[in-house]
Amino acid sequence: MSDKEASVIKVDEYIIRVDRLYTKDHEWVLIEKDKGTRVGITDYAQKSLHEIVYVEMPKVGSTVKQMETLGTVESIKAVSEVFAPLSGKIIEVNEKLVSTPELINESPYDEGWIAVIEPSALDEEIKNLLTHKEYGKLISDIIRKERE
Amino acid sequence: MRTHLYEFHKKNAKLTEFAGFEMPLWYDGIISEHLAVRESVGVFDVTHMGRYLITGRDAAKFLDKILTQNVASIKIYQGKISMICNELGGIVDDVFLFRLEEDKYLLICNAANRKKDYEWMIKHACNFSVNIMDISDNTAMFAVQGPKSLNVLHSIFNSNLSDLRFNYFKWINLDDLKIFVSRTGYTGEDGFELLLWDTPLSNPEKAYKVWEMILESGKEYNIKPCGLGARDTLRIEAGFCLYGNDINETITPLEAKLDFAIKFEKPDFIGREALLKQKTEGVKRVRVGVRSLEYGVLRSGYKILFNGKPAGEITSGTFSPLLKCGIGMGYVPPEISSPKTSINILIRGKAVRAEIAEMPFYKTTKYKKKGRIDDLQI
Q1: In a domain, A20, yes or no
Q2: Does residue A2 fall inside a structural domain?
Q3: Nearest chain A CA: its distance from B156 CA (Å)
Q4: Which of A113, B124, B128, B329 is the most buried (most CB within 10 A)?
Q5: What is the pLDDT along chain B (378 residues), one digit of tens a residue?
Q6: B chain contacts of residue A72, beta-carbon cutoff 8 Å
Q7: Does B26 reach chain A within 8 Å, measured CB to CB?
Q8: If we measure between CA atoms, which residue out of A56, A57, A70, A67 comes closest to residue A24?
Q9: Does A53 touch chain B (CB under 8 A)?
């Protein structure tokens, strides 16, 4: 059991954590009191990419705008952009992803986090994010379309 | 289009479209399948490739006309790689040719070029007494590759395959099945390619029978079914070209460093004049291996920079599961083609440090009998 024990919902085989917010491009954001907002990509995203071999992360100190590119995650067959769920300053990046990018596959919501953003417009921008239930519905619509 | 094993692929693999075929991209994962082939054994369904029988009194003469290779010198049971070139020396396709009998040849071509090659052959056959028959839909083809491939097939066939020379084939009878087994492959490892004769697409049971026997026999060697993803990473590591990426009709075999397949001593073949001219004048660009010195994945289309200036382009690239770095191949001017030459690759606006590298990128364990390195060279 992870000591970051959190409850989940499952849509098909995809895990969605209840304790965070989501974007329609499959990023998650966890609001940590006084620490900033931690971001990463979801279980659906890591499963679609499959074996992740390289992660390009932003520089600490740089600023991002909501929905602008924050970095990229690459598998052998695909390059996927990671979009910033919120605007703000990058205050930390996950150095472990340089040598072990597969952490994102193994633990997309915990050890596989990508960056921490100090948000500049949290109260306004939070409205643009999806709740875990809304994200769950998005996933189930995608799955249904894929199966048609 | 689908091969005999479509249902197996659909059930067990992530599918992709390739040359009009619904093929497995991976079953388990590209990296695990790639490593399985390097370390033990893997099996591929390669039925999507084209297979043609060329027969008749003028079979050798006709093939000598359209191929760069010396066909007349191919012995029965032997095979050789060759190019089909156009009048300008450009590569129409890279193919493998086996001599089955005195006047009977088997030509194996890229899936993407099935129609093109067939029409090319028909077009150039008019002055020859030959018959060209497409047997692609009447045969199945599997590749068993890796250091343990001999072990896997030995228990199925009960035939001594260890004496089978690289690039040669033999016929094996398995119950009522006639199987062509060649010591060839596209991975850089020791391995075999199996052609199941008289196995129409409408009768997939025959194909399943052999496929399942291979998987069963391979269990003790942790055999993995492998998809096109691993097929690509393996062949790039081994330095092999992929038609459409590394070679096409605007590239000559001299530029692609495939000189070994051109036999200029043949007095006449399509493209000979153009190639001879280029050989005399020298090529303006040449195919090289590229290795990334920073983290990253190399991909087709990425620009190559030398001293900050554009010098070429990557034509095939990937992340090497064995070497854990980005590798690929591309074309650069001959002046900067020496291994270890420092270059940069432009990846999404960033100039990533890289170098020209020798291919194969790693030490191969290709089967070599009696010290003679057969035609299949990089």
Answers
A1: yes
A2: no
A3: 33
A4: B329
A5: 999 999 999 999 999 999 999 999 999 999 999 999 999 999 999 999 999 999 999 999 999 999 999 999 999 999 999 999 999 999 999 999 999 999 999 999 999 999 999 999 999 999 999 999 999 999 999 999 999 999 999 989 988 899 999 999 999 999 889 999 999 999 999 999 999 999 999 989 999 999 999 999 999 999 999 999 999 999 999 999 999 999 999 999 999 999 999 999 999 999 999 999 999 999 999 999 999 999 889 999 999 999 999 999 999 999 999 999 999 999 999 999 999 999 999 999 999 999 999 999 987 655 544 333 333 333
A6: 348
A7: yes
A8: A67
A9: yes
Strands B42-45, B224-225: pairing is: parallel
List, as ranges, residues 15-44 from A with C-beta within 8 Å of B: none
Of the candidates A50, A53, A98, the beta carbon closest to that of B297 is on A53
Domains, chain B, in order of start with CATH, read 6-47+139-236 (3.30.1360.120), 49-127+252-279 (3.30.70.1400), 284-359 (2.40.30.110)
- Which among B25, B232, B238, B36 is positioned nearest to B152, based on CA atoms? B36
Which positions ≥6 away from B38 have C-beta within 8 Å? B146, B189, B234, B322
Q: Looking at residue A79, which CATH number applies to its domain? A: 2.40.50.100
Q: Which residue has the tokens 């690929």?
A: B328
Q: How many domains does chain A contain in total?
A: 1
Residue B301 structure tokens: 């289309």
Query: Quick check: A79 contacting B, CB < 8 Å?
Result: yes
Sign of the C-alpha dihedral, residues B148, B151, B152, B157? positive
Is the residue at A82 inside a domain? yes
Q: What are the C-alpha distances in Å from B247 to residues B58, B95, B257? A: 29, 12, 10
Q: Is residue A107 part of a domain?
A: yes
Cβ of B229 within 8 Å of Cβ of A77? The answer is yes
* Three-state helix/strand/coil letters over A56-106: ECCCCCCEECCCCEEEEEEECCCEEEEECCCCEEEEEECCHHHHCCCHHHH
In angstroms, the CA B304 to CA B333 distance is 11
Contact of B299 with chain A, judged by CB distance below 8 Å, is answered with: yes
* Spatial CA neighbour of B121 closest among B24, B56, B187: B56
